[in-house]
Amino acid sequence: MRFRALGAGLAGVLLLAGAACPSYADPAPVEPAWGVVDSACAPDRLAAQRGAGLSVAVVDAHWDRLQPRPGAFEPAAAAGLAARVTRCLDAGMRVVLGSGAQYPPSWVRDLPDALLRDQHGGVARTGGVDLVFAAAPRAALDDYLTRLVAAVPATRLTGVRVGTSAAGEIGYPGPHESGYGVTSWWAFGAPAQTGRDLAPGQQPSPLPGWAPGSAQWEGRAVTAVDAGRWFGWYSGALVEALAAQARVLRGAGFAGEVHLPVPGRGVLPADRSVAVGSLLDGHGDRDGSLHRGLDHVAAMPGIAAAVPGPVVVDLTSVDDATAVRARALDPPEDTCRPEDPAVALDPTVRVERWSNLRFARAQAARAGLPVVGENPGPPGETTGGAADSDQEAEQVRRAPGYARNCGLAAFTLAFEEDLHTPRSGVTLADYVAAMLRT
What Gene3D superfamilies would the database entry show (predicted)? Predict the structure, then answer.
C-alpha cells in the first residue's frame, strides 16, 4: 500500500484547448521519459535531475492540509502547493499533480455514510472513505477538486491523478482490512445497498441485502449469473467513480490528462470464472484483486469508454514481487512480448505465470489506452513494496528495463527522496545508469 505520492512520466505532444501541452499519448514512444515520484521541487535537486536527463516531476497534493475545514482552501497551504508546482514547471519539468483525494480531512470522515463498510458492518483499518457510492463525501470531493484546479497553474500541468482507494489508486480496500478480521466486500453502506443518498451516476446493488457466498437471496437460489452480475456492478462502480472525478476536473477547466493509477493485474479470467461459479465465497481470489474490485479485463475498455479524455493508465507494478517470481521461472515470464494483447485472454495460455505488469499492460493495449508506470518502492514500507519484492537498489536497476521492454511512454521512480539521502543506498547516478542501459 502506498502512502507516499505516486507518479508518472511523459512523451509526445498533444494540442489541448488550442495550446501545445505536454502529453503521454504518443502510441509508440522510442524511449520512455524518466522522472521521479513525490518531488520536492527543490532547486538543487531539480538542477541535478534535469542535468541527468529527467523531465518529469510528480507532486502530490493533500486534501487534509488544503481543506482542513469545509469551505475555502487554507491560504498558506494552497500558496505552498502552487509555489512548489511552479518551481518544477519553471525548471522545465513536466508535472503530474496527485489530487490527494486519498488524504481526506477529518470532517469528511464525519459526513453521512462516509466510511466504507463491509458485509459485516466493519470499516477498513486504513480509513478508506466511500468515494464510490456515498453522495456526501463525493460532493465534498467534487468541491475540493474544483478548488484544487483553481489553486495551481492548471493550464501548465501535464496531468492530474485520481483514484478511489486509501493508496490513491483504483480499488476498494483489501479483503482483510476490516477490524473484524474477516474477508470483506466493501459495498454495504446504505447508499450502495438501498440507493439512499447514492452518488450521482451510480446504481444500487442489483441484489440488495445479498452477501457474497450466500446461496439464497429473497427466498430463491442464487446462480453464477447472479454472482457475476453482482461482481460486475461492484467492479464497474469503480470505473464510474473515476469518470465522475474526471468530469469534475473537466468542468473546472482542466483540459490536460487524467491519470489513473492501476495496481496489480486484477482478477484473471479463469479465476473470475471460478469465483462467480462459487458465488464469490472466496474461491478464485488469488491475490485479493477480487475483493478490491480489480477486473482489468473489463475495466480497461470501461475506462476508455467512460472517462473523458485524454486519459492515461499508470501501472504501479513495475518490478514488483510478481516480476521477481516470474523471472525465476524456466522460461522466464516477466517481460512483455508483442503477442501479449492477442493471447492474454486465451484460456490455454498460463497468464498466472506472468508478472502483474505484463498482464495489465496487455489489457491496456487491448483497450487502446496510453500507459506509463512506476515501481512499488522499497519493501517493508507502506509504499507497495512487498516483503518478497526486490530491494530498492535492485528496483532502481531493473525497473527502467521493464519500462522500456513493455513500451511504457514514461517511467517514474519511487521515490525522489531516496535518490538524495545516503541512508537509502541508491543515488541519482544509479538511476541514470539504469536509464542508459540498453
Answer: Glycosidases
